[in-house]
Design brief:
The protein is an alpha+beta fold and about 260 residues long. The protein is about 35% helix and about 20% strand. The strands form 2 sheets. It has a 6-stranded mixed β-sheet. It has a two-stranded antiparallel sheet with strand order 2-5. The protein is globular and about 45 Å long. The termini are far apart. Keywords: Plasmid.
Length: about 260
């Protein structure tokens, strides 16, 4: 998939890698949650939904870990159970949001669940133009260089304040919609949002697990005993003795019996 200008502004030279990694992560999270749903044998979708809440974050971290410049941080001063993927080069934060649990809800009608969490309020306020940065991150450790790197990332985030929402709709029946978005919280009371940008990734997950891999050349067999090296026993075949036709008919009559008995 060729990156758009919008994607390149947010992911730089790594845009193509992100466009591969993000749908792969959501696809794997969906499959992981589906497995939990099947194993749970429940009539409801609770096992699917609860697994997905954690799997979406864990898979995003796992699938983007190889991209240079990607780090994971947990927001400070707000309630958050999960680390978020941060691309330091452009100070972009990835935030997954399952905006619908079916395939027919329109994106523009989707609303954040109430009560609105501090994390969502903080992240989506960052997407507002000219907003002051409200998001900070805990320091990973006490190393001075790491602290300096973290502070530089925070300074960038304060300047740009970009949050890319990974929006999707799904349930155990399938993954219906997937894309990258820029959304703004419009009403804290209702959870209504404004979709300022949507970049669809629909269908890209169908062949993600089929990325070609290197084929190992065949290893030649030199010496040794093969399992089929043992000579076969000679088969002794003799012609079948033909039985006279009238004898076979007599035997058939004896076996069949008679209706007169």
């Amino acid at each position: 998939m060729k990156p758009s200008q919008w994607s390149r502004e947010r992911f730089g030279d790594a845009a193509e890698e992100f466009l591969y990694a993000i749908p792969l992560a959501i696809h794997r999270a969906h499959q992981q949650s589906l497995a939990a749903h099947i194993a749970g044998e429940l009539s409801t979708n609770d096992a699917y939904g609860n697994t997905l809440k954690a799997a979406q974050h864990e898979q995003l971290i796992a699938c983007t870990a190889h991209i240079p410049g990607v780090t994971t941080r947990k927001p400070a001063e707000v309630t958050s159970r999960f680390d978020l993927v941060v691309f330091d080069e452009t100070a972009v934060v990835l935030y997954p949001w399952r905006f619908a649990v079916d395939g027919w809800t329109r994106r523009k009608d989707a609303k954040l669940p109430k009560p609105l969490s501090d994390l969502r309020r903080s992240l989506l306020t960052l997407a507002t133009p000219n907003a002051e940065a409200q998001l900070s991150f805990d320091q990973v450790d006490e190393d001075p260089q790491d602290f300096a790197d973290e502070q530089a990332a925070l300074d960038q985030l304060a300047e740009f304040g970009r949050v890319v929402t990974v929006g999707y709709a799904s349930n155990p029946s399938g993954l219906f919609d997937l894309g990258l978005a820029e959304i703004v919280l419009a009403d804290e009371e209702t959870g209504a949002v404004v979709w300022r940008h949507w970049e669809p990734l629909n269908g890209t997950w169908e062949s993600l697990e089929l990325r070609p891999s290197l084929v190992q050349p065949p290893v030649p067999v030199t010496g040794g005993v093969r399992f089929d090296d043992t000579p076969l026993d000679d088969l002794v075949l003799a012609p079948r003795t033909a039985e006279p036709l009238h004898a076979a008919e007599v035997e058939l009559e004896l076996k069949a019996g008679s209706d007169d008995v």
